[in-house]
Amino acid sequence: MNKTTFGCLIAALVVALGLSVCFNLIQIVALLGDDPGLTDEIEPLTEKMVSKGQGEAPSKIVHLDLEGVISSMSTGGFLEDALPSVDGIKRSLEQAVGDAEVKAIVLRVNSPGGEVTASDIIYNAVKKAAAKKPVVVYMDSVAASGGYYVACGATKVIHELFGKVGLGSQTFTSGAFKDTLSGARPMREDEKLYVQALVNEMYDRFLGIVSEARKVPKDVLRNTVADGRVVTGRQALAAKLVDQIGYIEDAYALAKELGKAPDAAVVKYHSAPTFLDALGVSARSAKTPAKIELDLTGGALTKLQPGMMYYLPGSYLR
Per the domain annotation, does 111 fall within a domain? Predict the structure, then answer.
């Protein structure tokens, strides 16, 4: 072995050793972050200006986004802004409510729906926030099933001019029996009755939420738009599912009107990624064995978790 090759080998070993030491130090820091004896204060979310205010008084309208399938699975790290979790939405709503300068909230929903429980949690968080400050939900291209469930907690609902709204309970996932819905065999009659009863119960609660929020009798909903159909913005307005149709700027204007802050700035919340987030390392991941998964869809299809019920249009699963 010549001196040049030997030198390159030594340099490579030194670099590898240095990276290993750094990675282990990062894991130790992450583990220490869970020490109950250390202060673990939640850092406030930072703001990003969407449009400047016109007045001198420091008033703001907060814009939040609920994008994609609603899930209780937290993404964490620097991907949290792109794929907000249930906890992220709740945290943003709580900060907006607690900030005296925030006069109203605009929640943009662009979702086909998602988990029943996750949808219900966000609905309650939106309803709780709306009891303190005006919350305007702007429904973008699609706000189906669980997405509309969430919107029912708002003060006002605006629908995107050419979008779609889907209402109904077209999907169920897992039953109480181990191989129910596996597709390996035809379902027994008792399984069909059991799963249908679960769907009916969730559907009835969904109708109750919509009926209470929109002041439309459940029977009217059940016999008209709440049968799984897709409706346009104008049809949703005619069915009293939304308060008006328009664009996101109309949602901002309505929020300023409801918040009595016509000159307010519009801001978005986001959390600044830490060094550990950038490396994809956290206290949770440091304690969890590495798991390698191969996704042939390139992330185009959201994974549905077994054992959970969803508010999703049936077409989404085909």
Answer: yes
Does pTM surpass 0.70?
Answer: no
Pairing relation of β-strands 230-232 and 164-166? antiparallel
**C-alpha neighbours within 13 Å on the C-beta side of residue 296:** 0
Q: Which domain holds residue 140?
A: 44-285+303-317
From first to last of its 318 residues, what are the pLDDT tens digits of the chain? 566 666 666 777 777 777 776 666 666 555 555 444 444 566 788 878 888 888 777 889 999 998 888 887 655 544 454 455 788 889 899 999 999 999 999 999 988 888 888 888 899 999 999 999 999 999 888 788 888 889 888 888 887 766 566 655 444 444 445 556 554 456 677 777 877 887 788 888 889 889 998 899 999 988 888 877 778 888 888 889 889 888 889 999 999 999 999 989 999 888 766 655 555 544 444 444 555 454 544 444 556 665 566 666 665 555
CB 147 within 8 A of CB 118: no
CATH number at residue 258: 3.90.226.10
Indicate the residue type of 240. Answer: K
Do residues 97 and 120 touch, judged by C-beta distance below 8 A? no
Instruction: Tell whether 28 is covered by a domain.
Output: no
Residue reference for tokens 């008033």: 59
